[in-house]
C-alpha cells in the first residue's frame, strides 16, 4: 500500500473513534445530570454519627424519632421500637454538634 493511502485510512479510523467517544461522553453526561448530589447548606441541630467524605461533604447516619427541620430528604427506617427517621442529605461543612 502507498503511504498516502495508509495515512488516509488512519485518519478516517481516528475520526471514527473520536466520534464514538464523543457520542458516549454525551450520553454519559445526560445520564449523570440526574444523579447530581443535592447539597443541603443548612446545618443539623446535632449529629452523633457524622460521616466525612474526601470531597468535603458530610452525611449524618443518626436514626431519630423525627427529622431535623433543615433536612430536605428524610427516610423512614425500621427499628424495634417502631419507625424512626434518618436524614439522607449531604452537607457541605460540619453536620452539627454531637447529640
From TrEMBL:
InterPro entries: Bowman-Birk_prot_inh (IPR035995), Prot_inh_BBI (IPR000877), WIP1 (IPR044167). Transmembrane segments: none annotated. GO terms for molecular function: serine-type endopeptidase inhibitor activity. Residues 1-22 form the signal peptide. The keyword Signal applies. Residues 60-74 form the Bowman-Birk serine protease inhibitors family domain. PROSITE patterns: BOWMAN_BIRK. The keyword Signal applies. GO terms for cellular component: extracellular region. Keywords: Disulfide bond, Protease inhibitor, Signal. This is Bowman-Birk serine protease inhibitors family domain-containing protein. It comes from Panicum hallii var. hallii. The lineage of its organism: Eukaryota, Viridiplantae, Streptophyta, Embryophyta, Tracheophyta.
